[in-house]
Amino acid sequence: MSRLLGILVAILILSLMLFLHELGHFLMGRKLGFTVVEFSIFMGPRLFSFERNGIRYSLKAIPLGASVEFSGEYPEENEDYVLKKGDFYERPKWARALTLLAGPFMNILTALIVFIILFSATGFAKTRVAGIDSGSLAREAGMKAGEQILSIDGYKVRTDLDFSISQMVLDPAQAKEPASNYTILTQDPQTGEEKSYEIKPRMEDSYVFGIVMDFSDNKNIISTIDKEINPHAGSFVPGDEILKVDGQEVNPTNLIPTLRASSSDSERTFTINRGGKTKDIQVKPSAVPAPVPLGISLTLVEKPGFSVVPYTFQYMWSYLKGTGKVLGQVFQGRARAQDTLTGPVGIVSVFSGVVTSEFNVGLKLIQIFNLFAVISLALGATNLLPIPPLDGGQLLLLIIESIRRKRLSLKAQNIVTMIGVVFVLGLAALALGFDILRIFKK
To answer: Under a CB-based contact definition with an 8 Å cutoff, are residues 271 and 255 in contact?
Structure first.
């Protein structure tokens, strides 16, 4: 599939999320007696439209997003305008609040449904320890399989996502230098006894061969080599297929663990297929300082049944909580904004990359479903932030109106909205810049 087609599919998927958002506003508004002027799919000039029950339905030229226009939504644009029945500001405040909330709610509901389908099909991991790797930090601390993880460095762990995020929010400098010690709190599921383990991060040499693999078509193909990481990587040629390592046959599943098993810079023998000819070459790895892994594997639930529902709710909360934690580190200067902020261009790029990948159809669909659910959840939650012109910002103005018992003056509304617009556009421009940098780095 061409890159262009992949981008088009990605844009349409993103547009579906925005369509569902506007559909939420539309359906709730209709239910509560708001007069809808127009419901549009996509943006820009109209390609065609038709009218039914007094509502214009339009398809527009730019394939991105959707919109719904309520009657009397901007009465201040005309000083002589008199509110009519069904106008946006004629309806009671509770009805306006529900209509504003319906858009984000639709995105969050969509994410919930997609996650439930996804986890029902693929399963999920519980926070119970299934195994401890030898030579890992957890093994050195004395942790054992079967224990339930409660928290890591004070960060509560209720899902496997919490487990991943808890390690991300530890000092990011851990990637370059050993972080300070931290604790893992566990509980014995049988007795309820809690235990606290002190984890002591440290660095040790990791032996790497300076190659990046392409496992498409179920083959071990070397896509690129990096002689800066390993000067001996020049013995390989991009396109080489690795058949054996030290006489042991390897496949896409066991190749990486086999290479990571190198514990010294001793040469290893690779049997490769190069241009249809089989040959053996000897390659030495290079020592690269790296953090010793925590080394904990979690228990998988392959057939979750009804337990998928409470797990999905908890997983979604873990995602929102973790996102807030990571963004907090950005503002504290402990994490780089370019590693965390992604805009529409980045989202399209990620979706397009999955669509055009060489993965089998099943794996590709799983990745697309997961991205769709995650971004839908993020879209719904972001729109609830109390920043005009987001839905949450409009709810904030509605709360102020309820307290004052009258709307803010047009001047005050314009000032508040302008501040919000500048903030949102500035953030969008920053995310766009990071997206473009990522694309050029590829």
So the answer is: no
Q: Report which residue type is found at 33.
A: G
Provide the CA 406 distance to its chain's centre, in angstroms.
40
Beta bridge partners of 156: 151
* CA atoms of 297 and 174, how far apart (whole Å): 20
> CA 358 to CA 218: how far, in whole Å?
10
For residue 77, count CB atoms less than 10 angstroms from its CB and return exposed for 0-12, middle for 13-18, buried for 19 or more. Answer: exposed
Spatial distance between the Cα atoms of 236 and 282, rounded to a whole number of angstroms? 10
Fold of 206-287: Pdz3 Domain (2.30.42)
Do 206-287 and 121-204+292-332 have the same topology in CATH? yes
Determine the residue type at 68: V
Q: Token pair for residue 165?
A: 């995020």
Q: How far apart are CA 193 and CA 191, in angstroms?
A: 5
Which among 213, 250, 211, 216 has a CA at the least distance from the CA of 228? 211
Q: How far apart are CA 198 and CA 432, in angstroms?
A: 41
Residue spans per domain, the chain: 3-120+374-441, 121-204+292-332, 206-287
Quick one: tokens of 138? 């957890």
DSSP state of 189: T
Task: Name the CATH superfamily for 121-204+292-332.
Answer: PDZ domain (2.30.42.10)
Low-confidence spans in the chain with pLDDT less than 50: 1, 171-178, 442
Judge contact between 271 and 258, C-beta under 8 A.
no
Query: Which contacts (CB < 8 Å, 24+ apart) does range 261-265 have?
Result: 262/207, 262/209, 263/207, 264/207, 265/207
Query: What are the tokens at 198?
Result: 């002190």
Based on DSSP, count helices (H) and strands (E) in the chain, helices before strands.
10, 16
3-state secondary structure of 364: helix
The pLDDT, as a whole number, for residue 67 is 93
The residue to which tokens 């127009």 are assigned? 38
Tell me the per-residue pLDDT of 223-235, one tens digit each, with 9 for 90 and over. 889 898 999 999 9
